[in-house]
Amino acid sequence: GQQVMQIPQYQHVQEGEDFTTYCNSSTTLSNIQWYKQRPGGHPVFLIQLVKSGEVKKQKRLTFQFGEAKKNSSLHITATQTTDVGTYFCAGPCDTGNQFYFGTGTSLTVIP
Amino acid sequence: EAQVTQNPRYLITVTGKKLTVTCSQNMNHEYMSWYRQDPGLGLRQIYYSMNVEVTDKGDVPEGYKVSRKEKRNFPLILESPSPNQTSLYFCASWTGYEQYFGPGTRLTVT
Q1: For an interface test with A, which of B35, B37, B50, B95 has the most A Cβ atoms less than 10 Å from its Cβ?
Q2: Residues of chain A with C-beta less than 8 angstroms from the C-beta of B101
Q3: Contacts of B43 in chain A (CB under 8 A)
């Protein structure tokens, strides 16, 4: 079946350092979504990328969708303690009805 | 306020005792879904529903049932829970763009 892997699984950074998580799918994705889950909370939608090679920015967050539409990345510049949480990528299968989530990257920011 | 609600939020039960986790959304979304979250595995889709009376299996449907009799409700049924179904469960509804998640139900089966 389709698999979506993320690396790293855990990342500890000092406040102010940059952070990147990578998402890799075993199959081509029609689009990729990113979610953030705060400790004890539920996933919250951040963004959706659709086009091959697409790059989107939200303040300190930069999202990229790979040219082959099989990989994606989320980069946070100058992390803050409010960035703490687990970041998930997610994409629909070919029919667009079933969703596959990545394994997640847990970010800890040390003040 | 747009939201997805789930009940109960916490549940401890014993093996074999049937249970239902309710899910309701007030956004008139056609697509609803159930996920389970386990450490190191991310979220895995259990079942999803494209519309009323239309449901389909996700990645891990074994041991679960769902129904969609009304657009707003999508209950998850465990007819004979087992310890390997101990997990954190999320209900979600989808706009076609983003998924809205409920607060989660932490289930422990002993």
Answers
A1: B37
A2: 42-44
A3: 43, 88, 90, 101
Residues B19, B76: contact at Cβ < 8 Å? no
Are B25 and B32 in contact by the 8 Å Cβ rule? The answer is: yes
Pair B110, B12: CB distance under 8 Å: yes
Type of residue found at A75 = H
Q: How far apart are CA B100 and CA B25, in angstroms?
A: 9
Q: What are A51-109's pLDDT values in tens digits?
A: 999 999 999 999 999 999 999 999 999 999 999 999 999 998 766 788 999 999 999 99
Residue B64: both structure tokens together: 């679960």
Mean pLDDT of chain B: 96
- Chain A residues whose CB is inside 8 A of the B88 CB are none
SS (H, E, C) B57-93: ECCCCCCCEECCCCCCECCEEECCCCHHHCEEEEEEE
**Burial state string for A7-46 with b = 16 or more CB within 10 A and e = fewer than 16:** eeeebeeeeeeebebbbbbeeebebbbbbbbeeeebbebb
* Torsion sign, CA atoms B69, B18, B25, B86: negative
Structure tokens at B15: 């093996």
